[in-house]
Amino acid sequence: MSTTIDTTPKQKSGWWALSPLAVFLCLYLVTSLFVNDFYKVPITVAFLASSCYAIAITRGLNLEQRIHQFSIGASNKNIMLMVWIFVLAGAFAQSAKQMGAIDATVNLTLHILPDNLLLAGIFIAACFISLSVGTSVGTIVALTPVAVGLAEKTGIDLPYMVAIVVGGSFFGDNLSFISDTTIASTKTQDCVMKDKFRVNFMIVVPAALIVLGIYIFQGLSVSASPQVQAIEWIKVIPYLIVLGTAIAGVNVMLVLLLGIISTGLIGICTATGFFGIIPASAESTSAGTAFFDWFGAMGTGITGMGELIIITLLAGGMLEIIRYNGGIDFIISRMTRHVSGKRGAEFSIAALVSIANLCTANNTIAIITTGPIAKDIAVRFHLDRRKTASILDTFSCLVQGIIPYGAQMLIAAGLAGISPLSIIGNLYYPFCMGTCAILAILMRYPMKYSGEG
Predict the structure, then answer these.
(1) Which residue of 144, 195, 265, 346 pairs with 415 in a disulfide if CB–CB is 3.0 to 4.6 A?
(2) pLDDT for the residue 3
(3) What is the pTM of this model?
């Protein structure tokens, strides 16, 4: 028997609707900081507890209807899209590792880049790729395994190296013309993408240059052992395919699928000695054995993403309960009641999209949710819509880049096998970008876009 539910948010719940988020943050973030151990409280347990709490406090529905509403959030099309990406990313990462693509790419990177430019080089690569593909997730999927390999070869702290990739990935996510956040922010504010790009460029490029300078300085102390291994160029091909198709604008799921197929074909060729390729071992294995080894690696990679998928589903369900209980609508109405002056108006837009992102863990949805309110504020206080679009995009990317339950942080932590909280402490770019964005509001910068609009 089907159950029909009125999904209209209830604003009367007020701050109470946001309490599941507070429960999660206390259980996971505060407890981990208190005991100084990021692995003491599993993030899955924190989300399970906060999800149960969210279901328990929901009013007006019986238990079956509450669970149904929770499931609506867990099965949201954006959540399911992330699940499929996680599945493909796990299969690609493990199959690439099994056939030697990661080691070959790491060796090539160490061969090309001087030791003291490794940190800066990875950051530049992340910025360039994300700017080209318009997605932070695709950039993280492509570069995190390489960053992990570099950390192992150089002795660089793993969370620090992964944080470089995560930070750089948000540079392009914020600026790219094909990014979902760029499209959403410009459409909701009725402005042209190139105009929003100019405003964003003037705000975030100084932040990127500052962070790049930090990485160059800190890279002076990095030294890697001399590379005596011959570079296996053919094993680098899967990564070249992934990066090339991603930069060409191919859908991230197709990019990963092409990567999986290429790792399988090249892995079988190198293992069996086909086409004159010398296998790594003295004796080549049979094509059948290599084929099933490839399948086994994909299976291991997919299974390894199980925790990440569970977290994503629980987060989606909990955040839908918060939305249903009126948490997002309530905070938007409260934040816009006492706005006065241009600075206050711009800060209110920044706060609105930040809190919405905190509650949805999706920067595109946060922009779509708060965009119409931001447009009304812009009209009322004569703000330049090009700057309001930039504020929406920049602050949503800031929050998305630092929350431990965001898709980008979860997939980076999952691929590296570390805690999301350990990455947050090493993030430079998102915090520097946020600082520059706040200063841009305070100092009315850029001046051309901070006057009458």
Answers:
(1) 144
(2) 46
(3) 0.76
Number of compact structural domains in the chain? 1
CA count, 13 A, side-chain hemisphere, 381? 23
Residue 197 domain flag? yes
> Residue for token digits 């920067």?
363
Rounded distance between C-alpha atoms, residue 269 and residue 287, angstroms = 8
Q: Which of 56, 62, 64, 58 is nearest to 1 (CA)?
A: 64
- Give the Cα separation of 309 and 85 in Å (integer): 10
pLDDT in tens, 103-115: 787 777 777 777 7
- Quick: pLDDT tens for 71-99: 999 998 878 887 888 888 889 888 888 88
Q: Is 445 helix (H, G, I), strand (E, B) or coil?
A: coil
Q: What is the tens place of the pLDDT at every residue in 215-260? A: 999 988 877 655 545 677 888 888 888 878 776 767 778 888 998 9
Range of 234's domain? 79-306
Residue 38 lies in a domain: no
Amino acid at site 156:
I
The residues near 211 (Cβ < 8 Å, ≥ 6 apart) are: 123, 167, 428, 429, 432
Residue 422: inside a domain, yes or no?
no
- Rounded-to-integer distance, Cα 21 and Cα 314, Å: 12
Closest CA relative to residue 353, chosen from 403, 320, 383, 396: 396
- Tell whether 437 is covered by a domain: no
